[in-house]
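Re: the request from the purification team.
They wanted to know what the chain is likely to look like in 3D before they choose a buffer screen. I agreed to run a prediction and write the result into the notebook, where they can find it.
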Amino acid sequence: MNPEANAILITADRLWDGTGGATLVRPTVRVVGERIDAVECGLLPPSSCSGDRIDFPGCTILPGLIDTHVHLVMSAQATNEAIIDQVLRESDEQLLARSLANAQAALRTGITTLRDCGGKGTIVRQVRDRIRRGEVAGPDVLSCGSPITTTRGHCWWLGLIADTHDQVRQAAERMLREDADFLKVMATGGNMTASSDPMRAQYDPEALKSIADIGRQSGKHSAAHVLSRVALPGVVAANYRTIEHCDWRVEEFRYEFQPDLARRMIDQDQIVGLTMSGLARRAFLPEIKHINIGPVQRLDMRFACERLMLDLGVRYTIHSDAGVRLCPIDRFDLGLQAAQVELKLTPNEILRAVTATAAEAIGLPDRGTLTTGKRADLIVVDGDPLKDLACMGKVRAVMKAGQWQVK
């Protein structure tokens, strides 16, 4: 059998390929098996036109989206307390059902790859493996298992507690034995966990380095949750691949950007994860304006500091932190629009952050752009998202590894 007999030809009004170049007009994408065989402006030559052709008039073809920070076991309720209570109260079967449903919802909205930055027990790995085996539909999932944290520290309720240096090492080694795709540490406390303090480091530089080194020795990257500047020097010194949130706060309502530290991030090619979760979507969620809490009151200062970091040249992804309060996994589009409003990023910059840069950040070089030889992960949206990012909420079709997914 000629494998090219099963080729798929996809056309639309335009194509954005993730490389940062110009948008192609009237493109044709040729997919053979799991890979992109060709991308052309206009019709392919007759010798390459065998296969099924599908047209999407009025639409744009883009690479599949990559959300580098989600929490599949969480339910995006209105309060942190409700989310935590649910995770602690529900059975593994209930948590697995929610995680599967969240993964499938993510796929329907164009997310073909996601990185889960903290689940409970083996729940997320079960989701990952069921999707890999083809038992259920869903995006590719990278799982850290549970994040490493301290007693009563941020996300202690997910169950991986480590206080001493020996316990930290054992926790990291345990996650790798249990087939984690990467390691995650809570370098500071977090806003979500009342018993933790976001302004305090949870681990000293030696412990942080131990985790990152153990990951590197196994060929796995590591991610660090950082909600204040106090932990940044240790995380940068340990050369974590990604710095989640990368918050420069030094006091409750004071931020201080440190250019020398940011330049070291650039030199080490570290990538920060900019969090556009529920609270950061204030421009699109009117109810946020009525929440009188620090994380909302500080947003202007936070975004101003992040803009300084980006202007210096620090590389970044944009993630949803889906599952936290007011942040359902199927509204990634709102986070992208919020990045445009709050950080003054262009649609091209935003889309690169959730495709090509995201793929590089999490070590998946086979995806992230629509170029010959890459895996055929792509989405089709109504309209032109380079002119109006709201189009990212109008997904018409999703292809993962050369297979159309059910919408």
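For the purification team: The longest strand covers residues 52-63.
Please add any questions underneath this entry.
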